[in-house]
Specification:
single chain; alpha/beta; Aspartate Aminotransferase, domain 1; Aspartate Aminotransferase, domain 2; 7-stranded mixed beta sheet
Protein backbone atom coordinates (compact mmCIF):
# COMPACT_ATOMS: atom_id res chain seq x y z
CA UNK A 1 0.00 0.00 0.00
CA UNK A 2 1.36 3.42 -0.96
CA UNK A 3 2.09 5.78 1.91
CA UNK A 4 -0.27 8.76 1.47
CA UNK A 5 2.43 11.05 2.86
CA UNK A 6 5.75 10.38 1.18
CA UNK A 7 8.20 12.42 3.26
CA UNK A 8 11.06 11.83 0.84
CA UNK A 9 9.02 13.22 -2.05
CA UNK A 10 7.89 16.14 0.13
CA UNK A 11 11.49 17.02 0.98
CA UNK A 12 12.41 17.06 -2.72
CA UNK A 13 9.84 19.83 -3.14
CA UNK A 14 12.01 22.17 -1.01
CA UNK A 15 15.30 23.08 -2.75
CA UNK A 16 16.94 24.56 0.35
CA UNK A 17 16.76 21.24 2.20
CA UNK A 18 19.44 19.81 -0.09
CA UNK A 19 22.11 22.35 0.87
CA UNK A 20 24.89 21.98 3.39
CA UNK A 21 25.47 24.37 6.28
CA UNK A 22 28.91 24.52 7.86
CA UNK A 23 29.82 21.38 5.95
CA UNK A 24 26.85 19.40 7.28
CA UNK A 25 23.43 18.64 5.77
CA UNK A 26 21.02 21.37 6.79
CA UNK A 27 18.56 20.36 9.53
CA UNK A 28 16.05 23.20 9.57
CA UNK A 29 14.15 23.37 12.87
CA UNK A 30 13.09 27.02 13.03
CA UNK A 31 9.72 26.65 11.36
CA UNK A 32 7.87 28.59 14.05
CA UNK A 33 9.84 31.66 12.99
CA UNK A 34 9.45 31.10 9.26
CA UNK A 35 8.95 28.08 7.04
CA UNK A 36 10.93 27.18 3.93
CA UNK A 37 9.35 27.49 0.50
CA UNK A 38 8.46 24.68 -1.90
CA UNK A 39 9.55 24.84 -5.53
CA UNK A 40 5.92 25.43 -6.50
CA UNK A 41 5.82 28.73 -4.60
CA UNK A 42 9.24 29.86 -5.77
CA UNK A 43 8.42 29.07 -9.39
CA UNK A 44 5.00 30.70 -9.23
CA UNK A 45 6.45 34.01 -7.98
CA UNK A 46 9.25 33.84 -10.57
CA UNK A 47 6.82 33.15 -13.40
CA UNK A 48 4.44 35.88 -12.26
CA UNK A 49 7.19 38.51 -12.26
CA UNK A 50 8.55 37.25 -15.56
CA UNK A 51 5.34 37.00 -17.60
CA UNK A 52 2.27 38.26 -15.72
CA UNK A 53 3.14 41.18 -13.46
CA UNK A 54 1.15 44.42 -13.55
CA UNK A 55 -0.59 46.64 -11.03
CA UNK A 56 -4.02 45.53 -9.86
CA UNK A 57 -7.53 47.03 -9.66
CA UNK A 58 -6.49 50.10 -11.67
CA UNK A 59 -5.78 49.17 -15.26
CA UNK A 60 -8.14 48.51 -18.15
CA UNK A 61 -5.39 46.79 -20.14
CA UNK A 62 -5.29 43.00 -20.29
CA UNK A 63 -2.12 42.47 -18.25
CA UNK A 64 -3.55 44.47 -15.34
CA UNK A 65 -6.91 42.74 -15.60
CA UNK A 66 -5.23 39.33 -15.51
CA UNK A 67 -3.07 40.32 -12.53
CA UNK A 68 -6.15 41.57 -10.69
CA UNK A 69 -7.95 38.30 -11.42
CA UNK A 70 -5.01 36.29 -10.02
CA UNK A 71 -5.02 38.26 -6.75
CA UNK A 72 -8.77 38.04 -6.34
CA UNK A 73 -8.62 34.29 -6.95
CA UNK A 74 -6.28 34.09 -3.94
CA UNK A 75 -8.79 36.04 -1.87
CA UNK A 76 -11.34 33.37 -2.73
CA UNK A 77 -8.75 30.72 -1.91
CA UNK A 78 -8.16 32.26 1.54
CA UNK A 79 -11.90 32.46 2.18
CA UNK A 80 -12.16 28.75 1.48
CA UNK A 81 -9.08 27.94 3.57
CA UNK A 82 -10.55 29.72 6.61
CA UNK A 83 -14.14 28.66 5.82
CA UNK A 84 -15.11 32.32 6.04
CA UNK A 85 -18.69 33.26 5.13
CA UNK A 86 -17.82 36.08 2.70
CA UNK A 87 -14.83 36.85 0.45
CA UNK A 88 -15.16 40.56 1.35
CA UNK A 89 -14.14 39.63 4.90
CA UNK A 90 -10.65 38.64 3.68
CA UNK A 91 -8.25 41.56 4.07
CA UNK A 92 -4.71 41.30 2.68
CA UNK A 93 -2.11 42.69 5.09
CA UNK A 94 1.67 42.40 5.44
CA UNK A 95 1.34 39.74 8.14
CA UNK A 96 -0.26 38.91 11.48
CA UNK A 97 1.44 41.86 13.18
CA UNK A 98 -0.17 44.37 10.85
CA UNK A 99 -3.50 42.56 11.16
CA UNK A 100 -3.50 42.91 14.95
CA UNK A 101 -2.49 46.56 14.71
CA UNK A 102 -5.28 47.11 12.18
CA UNK A 103 -7.88 45.73 14.59
CA UNK A 104 -6.38 47.59 17.56
CA UNK A 105 -6.56 50.83 15.61
CA UNK A 106 -9.76 50.33 13.61
CA UNK A 107 -11.81 48.69 16.34
CA UNK A 108 -9.98 49.60 19.54
CA UNK A 109 -9.83 53.36 19.02
CA UNK A 110 -13.53 53.96 18.33
CA UNK A 111 -15.05 51.28 20.55
CA UNK A 112 -12.82 51.12 23.65
CA UNK A 113 -13.22 53.84 26.26
CA UNK A 114 -11.91 54.91 29.65
CA UNK A 115 -12.49 52.17 32.23
CA UNK A 116 -12.95 49.41 29.64
CA UNK A 117 -10.84 46.26 29.78
CA UNK A 118 -8.87 44.24 27.25
CA UNK A 119 -8.02 40.64 28.12
CA UNK A 120 -4.98 38.75 26.80
CA UNK A 121 -3.03 35.75 28.15
CA UNK A 122 0.41 35.14 29.62
CA UNK A 123 1.56 33.26 26.52
CA UNK A 124 1.09 36.05 23.97
CA UNK A 125 3.67 37.09 21.39
CA UNK A 126 4.74 40.74 21.69
CA UNK A 127 2.68 41.47 18.56
CA UNK A 128 -0.46 40.59 20.53
CA UNK A 129 0.57 42.53 23.63
CA UNK A 130 1.99 45.88 22.58
CA UNK A 131 -0.85 47.08 20.31
CA UNK A 132 -3.31 46.54 23.17
CA UNK A 133 -1.00 48.21 25.66
CA UNK A 134 -0.90 51.25 23.40
CA UNK A 135 -4.68 51.35 23.07
CA UNK A 136 -5.03 51.12 26.84
CA UNK A 137 -2.60 54.00 27.33
CA UNK A 138 -4.39 56.09 24.73
CA UNK A 139 -7.94 55.37 25.85
CA UNK A 140 -7.49 54.99 29.60
CA UNK A 141 -8.48 51.32 29.46
CA UNK A 142 -7.02 48.46 31.49
CA UNK A 143 -5.03 45.50 30.16
CA UNK A 144 -5.71 42.26 32.02
CA UNK A 145 -3.67 39.08 31.64
CA UNK A 146 -5.17 35.61 32.12
CA UNK A 147 -2.69 33.15 33.69
CA UNK A 148 -1.43 29.80 32.46
CA UNK A 149 -0.38 26.76 34.48
CA UNK A 150 3.13 25.32 34.67
CA UNK A 151 2.38 22.99 31.74
CA UNK A 152 1.70 26.02 29.55
CA UNK A 153 -2.10 25.68 29.40
CA UNK A 154 -4.62 28.45 29.86
CA UNK A 155 -6.50 28.11 33.14
CA UNK A 156 -10.04 28.38 31.81
CA UNK A 157 -11.65 29.02 35.18
CA UNK A 158 -9.27 31.93 35.75
CA UNK A 159 -9.86 33.15 32.20
CA UNK A 160 -13.60 33.15 32.94
CA UNK A 161 -13.06 35.15 36.15
CA UNK A 162 -11.00 37.77 34.32
CA UNK A 163 -13.95 38.50 32.02
CA UNK A 164 -16.48 41.11 33.12
CA UNK A 165 -19.04 43.50 31.63
CA UNK A 166 -16.10 45.92 31.25
CA UNK A 167 -14.28 43.53 28.89
CA UNK A 168 -14.59 44.89 25.36
CA UNK A 169 -11.83 42.95 23.59
CA UNK A 170 -10.22 39.55 24.10
CA UNK A 171 -7.03 38.87 22.12
CA UNK A 172 -5.50 35.39 22.35
CA UNK A 173 -3.01 33.28 20.48
CA UNK A 174 -4.33 30.16 18.79
CA UNK A 175 -1.01 28.44 19.50
CA UNK A 176 1.95 29.70 21.51
CA UNK A 177 5.06 30.25 19.40
CA UNK A 178 7.25 29.66 22.46
CA UNK A 179 5.48 26.68 24.10
CA UNK A 180 3.50 25.03 21.32
CA UNK A 181 0.35 25.09 23.48
CA UNK A 182 -2.86 25.10 21.42
CA UNK A 183 -5.57 27.07 23.15
CA UNK A 184 -9.23 25.94 23.38
CA UNK A 185 -10.26 28.91 21.27
CA UNK A 186 -13.88 27.88 20.73
CA UNK A 187 -14.48 27.63 24.47
CA UNK A 188 -12.66 30.92 25.05
CA UNK A 189 -14.74 32.58 22.33
CA UNK A 190 -17.96 31.34 23.93
CA UNK A 191 -16.92 32.79 27.29
CA UNK A 192 -15.86 36.08 25.66
CA UNK A 193 -19.17 36.41 23.84
CA UNK A 194 -21.15 35.61 26.99
CA UNK A 195 -19.35 38.56 28.60
CA UNK A 196 -20.26 40.77 25.64
CA UNK A 197 -16.71 40.98 24.31
CA UNK A 198 -15.24 40.65 20.83
CA UNK A 199 -12.42 38.11 20.38
CA UNK A 200 -9.40 38.25 18.09
CA UNK A 201 -7.29 35.14 17.51
CA UNK A 202 -3.63 35.43 16.53
CA UNK A 203 -3.35 32.46 14.20
CA UNK A 204 0.28 32.92 13.14
CA UNK A 205 1.14 29.49 14.56
CA UNK A 206 -2.29 27.91 14.84
CA UNK A 207 -3.03 28.24 11.13
CA UNK A 208 -0.28 25.66 10.52
CA UNK A 209 -0.87 23.20 13.34
CA UNK A 210 -4.58 23.42 14.20
CA UNK A 211 -7.93 23.97 12.54
CA UNK A 212 -8.32 27.53 11.31
CA UNK A 213 -12.01 27.18 10.49
CA UNK A 214 -13.32 30.53 11.70
CA UNK A 215 -16.92 29.33 11.82
CA UNK A 216 -15.96 26.38 13.98
CA UNK A 217 -13.80 28.57 16.24
CA UNK A 218 -16.59 31.17 16.43
CA UNK A 219 -14.12 34.02 16.78
CA UNK A 220 -14.64 37.58 15.51
CA UNK A 221 -11.20 38.20 13.99
CA UNK A 222 -8.51 35.74 12.85
CA UNK A 223 -5.14 36.53 11.31
CA UNK A 224 -2.09 34.76 9.95
CA UNK A 225 1.17 35.39 8.08
CA UNK A 226 1.92 33.81 4.72
CA UNK A 227 5.56 33.03 5.42
CA UNK A 228 4.70 30.60 8.23
CA UNK A 229 2.56 28.45 5.95
CA UNK A 230 5.27 27.95 3.30
CA UNK A 231 4.41 31.13 1.39
CA UNK A 232 6.36 34.37 0.90
CA UNK A 233 7.07 37.07 3.46
CA UNK A 234 5.31 40.42 3.27
CA UNK A 235 1.77 39.09 3.00
CA UNK A 236 -0.84 37.84 5.43
CA UNK A 237 -4.57 37.77 6.00
CA UNK A 238 -6.97 39.33 8.43
CA UNK A 239 -10.43 37.81 8.54
CA UNK A 240 -13.14 39.67 10.42
CA UNK A 241 -16.89 39.46 10.74
CA UNK A 242 -18.40 41.70 8.09
CA UNK A 243 -20.59 43.65 10.50
CA UNK A 244 -17.53 44.52 12.60
CA UNK A 245 -15.29 45.41 9.66
CA UNK A 246 -17.98 47.69 8.25
CA UNK A 247 -18.13 49.66 11.52
CA UNK A 248 -14.34 50.06 11.75
CA UNK A 249 -12.31 53.04 10.60
CA UNK A 250 -9.58 52.53 7.98
CA UNK A 251 -6.19 51.68 9.42
CA UNK A 252 -4.31 53.46 6.64
CA UNK A 253 -5.45 55.93 4.01
CA UNK A 254 -4.31 56.62 0.47
CA UNK A 255 -4.79 55.10 -2.93
CA UNK A 256 -7.32 52.38 -3.73
CA UNK A 257 -9.17 52.48 -0.39
CA UNK A 258 -11.29 55.44 -1.47
CA UNK A 259 -14.63 55.91 -3.17
CA UNK A 260 -14.38 59.65 -3.84
CA UNK A 261 -11.82 62.33 -2.95
CA UNK A 262 -12.17 66.11 -2.96
CA UNK A 263 -10.12 68.65 -1.05
CA UNK A 264 -13.08 69.04 1.26
CA UNK A 265 -14.03 65.42 1.91
CA UNK A 266 -13.16 61.78 1.22
CA UNK A 267 -15.51 58.83 1.22
CA UNK A 268 -14.12 55.34 1.63
CA UNK A 269 -14.54 52.24 -0.49
CA UNK A 270 -16.42 49.23 0.76
CA UNK A 271 -14.89 45.97 1.95
CA UNK A 272 -12.27 44.70 1.48
CA UNK A 273 -10.65 47.69 -0.29
CA UNK A 274 -11.34 50.00 2.67
CA UNK A 275 -8.44 48.36 4.52
CA UNK A 276 -6.06 47.84 1.59
CA UNK A 277 -4.48 51.23 1.00
CA UNK A 278 -1.78 51.55 -1.64
CA UNK A 279 -0.37 49.04 -4.06
CA UNK A 280 -0.71 45.60 -2.46
CA UNK A 281 2.06 42.97 -2.34
CA UNK A 282 0.88 41.57 -5.66
CA UNK A 283 3.46 38.84 -6.28
CA UNK A 284 3.39 37.81 -2.62
CA UNK A 285 -0.37 37.36 -2.75
CA UNK A 286 0.01 35.14 -5.80
CA UNK A 287 2.74 33.20 -3.95
CA UNK A 288 0.43 32.77 -0.96
CA UNK A 289 -2.14 31.22 -3.24
CA UNK A 290 0.46 28.76 -4.51
CA UNK A 291 1.36 27.86 -0.91
CA UNK A 292 -2.27 27.15 -0.03
CA UNK A 293 -2.60 25.01 -3.15
CA UNK A 294 0.51 23.08 -2.11
CA UNK A 295 -0.90 22.40 1.36
CA UNK A 296 -4.15 21.20 -0.17
CA UNK A 297 -2.25 18.87 -2.48
CA UNK A 298 -0.53 17.22 0.49
CA UNK A 299 -3.67 17.23 2.58
CA UNK A 300 -3.86 19.31 5.75
CA UNK A 301 -4.80 16.29 7.89
CA UNK A 302 -1.88 14.30 6.47
CA UNK A 303 0.46 17.17 7.35
CA UNK A 304 -0.83 17.44 10.91
CA UNK A 305 -0.62 13.70 11.41
CA UNK A 306 3.00 13.71 10.24
CA UNK A 307 3.92 16.69 12.42
CA UNK A 308 2.34 15.08 15.48
CA UNK A 309 4.37 11.94 14.86
CA UNK A 310 7.57 14.00 14.68
CA UNK A 311 6.62 16.05 17.76
CA UNK A 312 5.86 12.92 19.80
CA UNK A 313 9.10 11.27 18.73
CA UNK A 314 11.16 14.40 19.46
CA UNK A 315 9.49 14.89 22.85
CA UNK A 316 10.33 11.32 23.84
CA UNK A 317 13.95 11.60 22.68
CA UNK A 318 14.64 15.01 24.20
CA UNK A 319 12.94 14.17 27.51
CA UNK A 320 15.36 11.26 27.89
CA UNK A 321 18.43 13.55 27.83
CA UNK A 322 19.79 14.12 31.34
CA UNK A 323 19.83 17.79 32.26
CA UNK A 324 17.36 18.81 29.56
CA UNK A 325 14.10 20.45 30.64
CA UNK A 326 11.21 20.85 28.23
CA UNK A 327 9.36 24.11 28.86
CA UNK A 328 5.69 23.67 28.02
CA UNK A 329 4.02 20.26 28.24
CA UNK A 330 0.45 21.09 27.29
CA UNK A 331 -1.80 18.16 26.42
CA UNK A 332 -2.88 19.93 23.22
CA UNK A 333 0.29 20.99 21.48
CA UNK A 334 1.71 21.81 18.05
CA UNK A 335 5.17 21.20 16.64
CA UNK A 336 7.26 23.29 19.04
CA UNK A 337 9.66 22.15 21.77
CA UNK A 338 11.29 24.80 23.95
CA UNK A 339 14.00 23.53 26.24
CA UNK A 340 16.89 24.42 28.50
CA UNK A 341 20.09 22.55 29.38
CA UNK A 342 21.45 22.68 32.90
CA UNK A 343 24.30 25.18 33.17
CA UNK A 344 24.36 26.09 29.47
CA UNK A 345 23.00 29.31 28.00
CA UNK A 346 20.56 28.83 25.11
CA UNK A 347 22.71 31.00 22.83
CA UNK A 348 25.61 28.61 23.38
CA UNK A 349 23.32 25.71 22.53
CA UNK A 350 22.30 27.39 19.29
CA UNK A 351 25.87 28.26 18.34
CA UNK A 352 27.19 24.73 18.75
CA UNK A 353 24.20 23.20 16.97
CA UNK A 354 24.72 25.59 14.08
CA UNK A 355 28.19 24.14 13.56
CA UNK A 356 26.45 20.77 13.16
CA UNK A 357 24.17 22.19 10.46
CA UNK A 358 21.18 22.39 12.83
CA UNK A 359 19.11 25.58 12.73
CA UNK A 360 17.08 26.25 15.89
CA UNK A 361 15.93 29.46 17.53
CA UNK A 362 17.29 30.72 20.85
CA UNK A 363 16.18 33.69 22.92
CA UNK A 364 12.93 34.98 24.35
CA UNK A 365 10.99 34.32 21.11
CA UNK A 366 9.26 37.73 21.27
CA UNK A 367 7.56 36.53 24.45
CA UNK A 368 9.51 38.17 27.26
CA UNK A 369 6.60 38.18 29.76
CA UNK A 370 6.19 34.45 29.19
CA UNK A 371 9.90 33.86 29.86
CA UNK A 372 9.54 35.89 33.07
CA UNK A 373 6.57 33.69 34.03
CA UNK A 374 8.93 30.68 33.94
CA UNK A 375 11.84 32.55 35.51
CA UNK A 376 13.98 32.15 32.40
CA UNK A 377 15.97 34.65 30.32
CA UNK A 378 15.60 32.50 27.23
CA UNK A 379 15.08 28.99 25.87
CA UNK A 380 16.28 26.98 22.92
CA UNK A 381 13.43 26.12 20.56
CA UNK A 382 13.14 23.39 17.96
CA UNK A 383 10.05 23.74 15.79
CA UNK A 384 8.92 21.24 13.20
CA UNK A 385 7.36 21.48 9.79
CA UNK A 386 5.85 19.22 7.19
CA UNK A 387 9.29 18.22 5.82
CA UNK A 388 11.06 17.28 9.05
CA UNK A 389 11.97 13.66 9.78
CA UNK A 390 12.80 11.31 12.64
CA UNK A 391 16.37 11.17 11.33
CA UNK A 392 16.63 14.93 11.80
CA UNK A 393 15.41 14.56 15.37
CA UNK A 394 18.18 12.01 15.91
CA UNK A 395 20.71 14.51 14.53
CA UNK A 396 19.36 17.10 16.97
CA UNK A 397 19.75 14.69 19.88
CA UNK A 398 23.34 13.94 18.91
CA UNK A 399 23.99 17.66 18.58
CA UNK A 400 22.64 18.36 22.07
CA UNK A 401 24.84 15.60 23.44
CA UNK A 402 27.80 17.31 21.82
CA UNK A 403 26.81 20.61 23.40
CA UNK A 404 26.80 18.98 26.81
CA UNK A 405 30.20 17.40 26.17
CA UNK A 406 31.72 20.74 25.20
CA UNK A 407 30.39 22.57 28.26
CA UNK A 408 30.78 19.75 30.75
Amino acid sequence: MTNPYDIHKVRRDFPILSIQMNGKPLVYLDNAATAQKPERVIRRIHDFYQREYATVHRGVYTLSQNSTWECEQVRDRCRKFLNAPDRDEIIFVSGATEAINLVASGYGRPFISTGDEILITEMEHHANIIPWQQICLEKGARLKVAPINDEGEIILEQFRKFLSPKTKMVAVTHMSNALGSINPVRRMAKLAHEAGAVILVDGAQGVVHASADVRELDCDFYCFSGHKIYGPTGVGVLWGRKQLLEKMEPYQTGGEMIKTVTFEKTTFAGLPQKFEAGTPPIAQIVGLGAALDYLETLGVENIRRHEKEILDYATEKLAAIAGLRIVGRAKSKGGVISFTLDGIHPHDIGTVLDQEGIAIRTGHHCAQPLMQRYGLPATARASFGLYNTRDEVDVLVRGITKVQEIFR
